Amino acid sequence: MADASRRLVVVRHAKSAWPKGVPDAQRPLNERGRRDAPAAGRWLRRHVEHVDAVLCSPAERTRQTWELLAAMLDSAPDPVFDARLYGAAADMLLTVVRELPDDAGCAMVLGHNPGMADVVMLLTGESPKMRTSAIAVLRLVGGWKQASPGGAALVAHATPRG
Prior knowledge:
By secondary structure, the chain is α/β, with parallel strands linked by helices. The chain has one domain: 3-Layer(aba) Sandwich (Rossmann fold). The protein has 4 helices and 6 strands, in the order E-H-E-H-E-H-E-H-E-E. The chain has a 6-stranded mixed beta sheet, sandwiched between helices. Helix 1 packs across helix 2 and helix 3 crosses helix 4. It starts with a strand and ends with a strand. The model has no long low-confidence stretch (mean pLDDT 95).
């Protein structure tokens, strides 16, 4: 499958709360985020056939986004929580994408801005707004190891709201 077309689904976590005294990595979703994350899952169910692999930041708000989003999918793989995704810049995100398993035809990376917006820009040259719960679907040709700046096309973008 090394030469096949691949899809990368880039997702920014849903809207989070800012409780006083709670460290950034432990901030939960707020009420809007708890509504929007399932809406993102419904959008993915309609527009992305399946997801073979999921890489997710270990932050509480990304974990909660994944749980609510995944509950709306027909089938969802077990996520891999990768600490490198927390606050990652585009170059680190590209490194992580290049490590995706070869047998994954469609993979999701769920994380934080500005990294999510920056990696979409790095890979496609386009800069769709990556608000909370935003989804960008990218098409790459070749294996994950060959992912490179400008080497992808933006095929869909949405910011589902619940």
